[in-house]
Design a protein that fits this description.
The chain is an all-beta fold and 63 residues long. It has no helices and five strands. The termini are far apart.
Length: 63
């Protein structure tokens, strides 16, 4: 099993971005039950609405 870089609740941003997001969970492969390398993040979009999207963990940096 791959070591997880972040834990639930951590504040992160994309390495090339400025948008702060919180880690919701790691994405788990439905067949192997192993992490896919993606994390689910929650953030506010331009309209101020909370949304969740998947990002590659390697593309994120801790805030």
């Amino acid at each position: 099993m791959e070591e997880q870089k972040f834990k639930e609740g951590d504040w992160v941003k994309e390495k090339n971005g400025t948008q702060g997001m919180t880690i919701v969970s790691y994405v788990i492969d439905g067949v192997t039950d192993e992490p896919t390398g993606e994390v689910r993040c929650r953030y506010k979009n331009a309209n101020g609405e909370e949304v969740e999207s998947n990002f590659w963990a390697e593309d994120l940096a801790e805030l």
